[in-house]
Fold this protein.
Amino acid sequence: VANIKSRDEILSFLNLIIALYILLRTVTTSSINYKALALSCFFFYLALLSKETALAGFILVPVILFFTERFTAKEILVRSVPFVAMVLLFQFQKYEVLGSLSAPEMKDVVNYVYIEPGTKLPSMFLLFSWCIKLLFIPFPLTYSYAYNQIPAAEWSSPGAIIGVLLAVALVYVCYKNLNAKNPLSLGGVIVIVTVAPAMMFVLLKGGILAERFLYAPVLGFSMMMVWLIFKAVKVSPEARDLNNAVKVFIPLLVVFCLYSFVTVTRNMNWHDQMTLNAHDVKVSPNSCQVHLHYGTILINAGTLEKDAAKKNEYFNKGLYEINEAIRIEPHIAEEYHEIGIAWQRIKENYDSALYYYNRAILESPNYAFSYLSLGTLYENTGQDQLASYYYNRGVELNPYFAQGVIARDNHRKRTGLNVKSFPSSNNMDSLETTTPNKDFNFYSEMGQTYGKRGDFVNATRCLEKAVQMNPSSTEALINLSLCYAMQKQYDPSIEALNKALALEPDNKLALGNLAIIYEHTGNKEKADELRKRMSELR
């Protein structure tokens, strides 16, 4: 499959269906076929190893046996015991490997959207209504329902109310037809049991919807739909004559063609990463993850592009998409890191790259990628002391970050440096006191150099002098605003950027930085206005 994360669902479902099929082969007599039962348990165990959601099979086993009409409650219980043993074996192995049977509370707002108190239960019913909708009408499809594609619900939300009504209706249909033991009730029970893990993921962890969660429920849904088609055309499932077969075949063919068309056309979107992201960003316009992924793909394409015009086009489109991600959720380190990558590798503007790498670290102090990028930037500009420090810092934060370890070791081998504390700026201080005729260019360069070293206090002092000497320098004003922002002095940072925009109203760097600061200070309306203005300059 193109999406490796869905492969576990496919394997889990496949092994579970094999287990249930073999189990059904053991019900021809009242005696127990131990070999077949053992084989069924083996495939159930494989389903559990594929993905833990196969625990739903533990409930499906007695359900399937109940619908065969061959066994008493006691016989069903006896045949279910071996499957309980498989669950216990799996949980024991999980405990031995992971050391705990419970997962830590997640704080990832992108993939755990419904974590806030009071939103989990109504959001669960909201997503249940989405599941039923996607079972009936699987269009349009998207690979990401991350924050904030489906906003958290309250009990007054129409989607949550519809979800409650659908859940009640489905339970009622199953209960009403339970004694009849027909495919309608069996299919409904299968839908409820197999969709339950996804709903528990929302209720317990605040997790998001994923279309792969519907892979197993499609089995129950299909059983219900086929049974309803038989009823609609007034044909008994036991009928064997050609006329009745044609009556059933025609509506089945129509349904088959419609769903196959959706499947085939969706497969085309998975041609490559660029095609998928370009399509799904339209389907999921409120998912910060899709915008971020698409922007990253565009920036990566821009770094490889040789044509200057196309490279610039990738840059502008990439930054637009990532700024959309920032508009939706402004506190993700990766967003700022990718903008830094764009400025460093496409525009070769190291000052802007430096700001955004530090901005990423500000959002997530343990984000090792930004430390690696800072190390690379300083190494490429010949500042090996700083490069060594940032390589070491990144590896210290994440010893298993292979790229960081390789970069650190290669740099250490080339230079012999192993800097563990931030390099002193004493030489810079000496340079400032001994240099005569200090003009605008001197203070501008000093400010940028201090900034590159992370000394934003001295950088601010020098750049303020530079701006006093040349108030019309847009570059100095933007650099000064970055230094203010890195010290969380947002008011003077905004003031400096507004002065820069007064000089150059279409300066994208100033517009983008100002939008980020407004976003960070809670003025989303102003930030959106500035990003709209940027998009109009494309």
